[in-house]
Design goal:
It is an enzyme of class 2 (transferase). By secondary structure, the protein is α/β, with parallel strands linked by helices. It contains 42 helices and 15 strands. α1 packs across α3. About 1% of the residues have low confidence.
Length: 967
């Protein structure tokens, strides 16, 4: 009699044989074979396909036995069956830990059934997606029902206006499923995207004390997330992602219908329309939820054919391409070229554009919409068939990849054994045959995707006719004299130097060892680049800068292809590198920034702060907060990309100096807000939310205060961040999680994590250099202070220079309440009555120390002028303004309104503290000096200029200094 695994391919047969005895040490049990429709051969085939199935049989046989007794694996997984099984588990639940345990036991059993039927091909794709989605709904609704009841016992029942009847009634949480859960297309190992809503404002009734409805539902939502997401000894149920809610991680966890409708009407973005296409009420009061969904429908589906959606769809397509390049996702069947997301994108593009008029498109399931697109003749039958076949193949393959280990992944395997498993699951003889069919599907999808969502860059640009001389020069096919004459003729100011650089590149080991395809692209690209350089003022100098980038992309020739196929991007590259060696270095260090050159319109018009927030939020939706490495990498790319836009705009003249600093400051603020969210979410997952005296939940109470250039809205391209961390919570209260810690410890760890995220060196460099020395007591002080401690220190222990620094401080990120409280503290400290003579002496003493330590030495004063630190420089103006602020804010409290020097000067002039003429002239001088520093930074130059620079400005600044500071 042959062994049960003998019919399996050799590597899998050996694998199953090696594990058979550990799974069944006493032989196959009778309960596994008797009246189950299973056999030893079937079990061996299942074990070959999935380590998860194998491990569950080995570690939890009692659960598999209970599963088989409830329904044989050969029968479909229906909604009715899942509900019945959950009800049986629910009977054993007596408390919240018991609920958590029951949900996780239920998950293990259900995952075993769904994955078995899918990988054995006993279920088709539709059943697998429907069963997984229904299972999620049963879990969410089951947990919500139990938790709602216990919350009502604790806090009372929330009451408000019922949206269906219009009268007062008890209220329930409405859970909206987004993405694949909303579309009933959930993966076998997926996270779930949710939004929490409740009908209306109101209060609880019948509890020990009334609670605001929003607070009630926020607490209920937190407990629901913990019930599903928290990892215990039994594992977890679903990873829960709440970032699609309004305002993302910084938004309230639950919002009223009115608040949701107002948000989407006033602030809803195009990508949120895209996300809402699949939204569906999955738990809670479904009748009330349906009212909400109907009210949100006009936001998603315009009443006309919405051609304006094309532009935003093109932006999303560009984002997809950038992400694939950034993360090297070519082997990702969801995100890579020709993957699942491109099919979803094509279908949802039609829904967004035409769904308002063609109501047949206002459905959620992708395969259903594909049929409608064919019926409406919006896509040819051939295209629909190819997309449908590819989608089914890719989703089945996705389930194969995930079901092998019950692991969320879309990456193709690289080891032989995993590839053999996938081939077996997908019905192929070997991996090569499976991969060949996969590539055929992906190629078709990529073609249709490019045709339907085409951008100008995707269209045939065609290479302009290029003189053969450039090819001959790059390939060194003629003599050096002729090459030199050729470059001279075409405007190269240092032809010999340029030829030497080209020879060095051509003869380098990296070029000599390039693969054939890469070498071919390089030989196509270099002549095109050399010709493009003739359009700039100094081609030789610019070539030396651009070659840094060329060397960086020799092994990543996709970037050469990008520049070859996009003449516009090529033009921007040589133009920007010609004008700024700093930009050239940035591009060489981070070639992914080349993506920014594809769109000249956005390159020279950087986004305002709200658009920056939206861009970062949208990009980060695809990166889990747990994935700190990817979070940090993308934040660095985000900062570099937007900083490049600012630099390009300054060089182009589309941004004046004041706006340059504004934009650089906004970038930092948006990054800091997100870093707080990431660090806070990670700590909350471990320890729960910080305790609050008022019992409110979901608040950080944490704020970042910016000092120096960040506080003064004067950031430069290479500025570090002077930060102080404060919080408004009671440090002695504790967090509400399973591993509670004191608030003081929580916020200290939060501060440490934030500094780590900002300071850490990653492959993409450092996000920002952080300086925390301005916090109370400096380096010897606590990393994070309570607001009360901060106030006490400023009143009793701070030095004059610390109050000077406070004049340029402002809240830049974090809790709005804490930021407002800080501003009140700042105002009170600055408005203290002071002895002006003592203040003057303190300021003069500090200025002289700085001048001695940082200014130009006496021996070099005839040679150079340090724009910031020398007499008549920027620091003199800053110290004058700070002195006047501290001396006169008691009499003129409005002086504390601003933290930046320019507006402080203007306010001092308005108040009459500084003559208006002086205020205006100082303002002009300040802008001139700062403009010089900005421009020099883009040329990789420091803040020292020739001694005869800014002579008139320096004289004037020093004359005002003597008038004000000499007593």
């Amino acid at each position: 009699m042959s062994e049960p695994w003998s019919c399996l391919p050799s590597p899998l047969a050996d694998d199953v044989a090696a594990s058979w005895e550990s799974v069944f040490p006493e032989g196959l049990p009778g309960w596994l074979l008797d009246d189950t429709g299973l056999s030893a051969e079937i079990i061996a085939r299942a074990m070959a396909r999935s380590l998860f199935l194998r491990q569950t049989l080995e570690r939890h046989p009692e659960q598999v036995q209970a599963l088989l007794e409830s329904r044989m694996l050969g029968e479909p997984t229906t909604p009715e069956y899942l509900q019945e099984r959950w009800n049986e588990y629910l009977c054993e639940v007596a408390d919240e830990p018991g609920l958590h345990s029951a949900l996780r036991q239920f998950r293990r059993e259900t995952q075993f059934r769904i994955i078995w039927r899918d990988l054995m091909r006993w279920a088709d794709l539709h059943e697998t997606m429907a069963a997984t989605s229904t299972f999620a709904e049963v879990c969410i609704q089951g947990a919500l029902d139990w938790l709602h009841e216990t919350a009502c016992e604790q806090y009372g029942t929330p009451w408000g206006v019922d949206p269906v009847s219009g009268s007062e009634a008890p209220q329930s949480l409405i859970v909206i499923g987004m993405g694949k859960l909303g579309g009933c297309e959930l993966n076998v190992s997926s996270d779930i995207d949710l939004i929490f809503a409740f009908p209306s404002k109101g209060e609880t009734r019948g509890g020990h004390r009334s609670l605001d409805n929003q607070q009630f539902f926020i607490r209920l939502g937190q407990r629901l997330i913990q019930a599903l997401d928290q990892i215990t000894a039994d594992g977890f149920v679903f990873r829960v992602d709440m970032r699609l809610r309004p305002y993302g991680q910084s938004g309230a966890l639950a919002l009223s219908f009115a608040a949701l409708e107002t948000y989407y009407q006033d602030q809803g973005r195009d990508w949120e329309r895209y996300a809402m296409v699949k939204s569906r009420v999955v738990a809670g009061d479904r009748k009330a939820g349906q009212v909400l969904m109907e009210n949100l429908r006009p936001f998603v589906y315009r009443r006309y054919i919405d051609f304006s959606a094309f532009e935003s769809l093109r932006s999303m397509k560009a984002m997809i391409s950038r992400e694939v390049r950034r993360q090297g996702l070519e082997n990702n069947i969801k995100l890579g070229s020709g993957g699942i997301r491109e099919i979803e994108f094509v279908v949802q593009a039609f829904q967004l554009i035409r769904g308002g008029r063609d109501r047949e498109l206002q459905q959620r399931e992708l395969l259903v919409i594909l049929n409608e697109l064919e019926a409406l003749e919006l896509l040819p039958s051939k295209v629909v068939n190819e997309l449908r076949e590819a989608y089914v193949f890719l989703r089945n393959l996705e389930h194969a990849l995930q079901g092998m280990e019950d692991k969320q992944t879309q990456l193709l395997p690289e080891d032989e054994l995993s590839r053999a498993r996938v081939a077996l699951i997908m019905g192929f003889e070997d991996w090569q045959a499976c991969h060949a069919v996969l590539e055929q599907h992906r190629e078709k999808v990529a073609t249709h995707f490019a045709n339907i969502i085409a951008t100008e860059e995707d269209e045939e640009n065609g290479q302009s006719s290029l003189d053969e001389g450039w090819f001959e020069l790059w390939l060194a096919e003629v003599d050096e004299v002729s090459d030199t004459q050729w470059l001279e003729k075409h405007g190269y100011e240092d032809p010999a130097g340029s030829l030497a650089l080209l020879a060095s590149l051509r003869d380098s080991r990296t070029v000599q060892t390039m693969q054939t395809q890469g070498r071919k692209r390089l030989n196509q690209f270099m002549p095109v680049l050399l010709q493009a350089l003739t359009e700039v003022e100094k081609p030789s100098e610019t070539l030396s800068r651009v070659l840094q980038l060329v060397e960086a992309i020799l092994r990543r020739t996709a970037y050469m292809l990008l520049l070859l196929e996009n003449p516009g991007a090529r033009t921007q590259l040589v133009s920007l590198c010609s004008e700024s060696p700093w930009i050239a270095r940035q591009l060489a260090e981070t070639p992914l920034l080349l993506d920014e050159l594809l769109n000249a319109e956005s390159l020279y018009h950087p986004p305002a702060k709200d658009e920056l927030q939206d861009d970062l939020r949208q990009q980060m939706l695809r990166i889990s907060y747990d994935d700190l490495e990817n979070q940090m990498e993308f934040l660095r790319h985000f900062k570099k990309a937007h900083t490049l836009r600012v630099a390009a705009s300054e060089l182009k003249g589309t941004l004046p100096l004041m706006k340059v600093s504004d934009y650089l400051t906004w970038i930092a603020e948006v990054v800091l807000d997100h870093v707080i969210d990431v660090a806070f979410a990670n700590l909350v997952a471990r320890h729960g939310y910080p305790g609050r005296a008022d019992g409110a939940a979901n608040e950080t109470d944490f704020a970042i205060i910016g000092y120096g250039k960040l506080g003064g809205i004067e950031l430069g391209y290479t500025s570090d961040l002077d930060l102080v961390f404060v919080h408004g919570a009671d440090p002695e209260l504790v967090t509400d999680g399973d591993k509670p810690i004191d608030n003081a410890v929580f916020y200290t760890r939060l501060g440490q994590r934030i500094v780590h995220i900002l300071n850490a060196q990653t492959p993409s460099g450092q996000l920002y250099e952080v300086d925390m020395r301005l916090r109370p007591s400096g380096n010897s002080g606590l990393l994070v202070s309570t607001l009360q401690a901060f106030r006490k220190y400023q009143l009793n222990d701070a030095w004059t220079w610390e109050h000077q620094a406070l004049a340029r401080a402002r809240g830049v990120a974090g809790s709005r309440d804490t930021l407002a409280a800080f501003e009140a503290v700042r105002h009170d400290i600055l408005c203290q009555s002071r002895d002006r003579e003592k203040l003057r002496q303190d300021v003069l003493e500090m200025r002289e120390k700085m001048r001695a330590n940082l200014g130009t030495t006496e021996s070099r004063k005839d040679e150079v002028f340090h724009i910031k630190h020398d007499t008549g420089g920027i620091v003199d103006m800053e110290f004058m303004v700070q002195y006047l602020m501290l001396a006169w804010s008691n009499a003129y409290p409005e002086l504390t309104k601003w933290s930046d020097n320019i507006r402080q000067m203007e306010e001092l002039g308005r108040a009459g503290v500084l003559p208006v003429e002086d205020a205006e002239k100082l303002r002009e001088a300040y802008i001139a000096l700062r403009s010089s520093i900005h421009r020099r930074a883009l040329q990789n130059l420091n803040s020292q200029v020739a001694a005869d620079a800014f002579v008139e400005e320096r004289k004037y600044i020093w004359s005002v200094w003597q008038k004000i500071m000499s007593g």
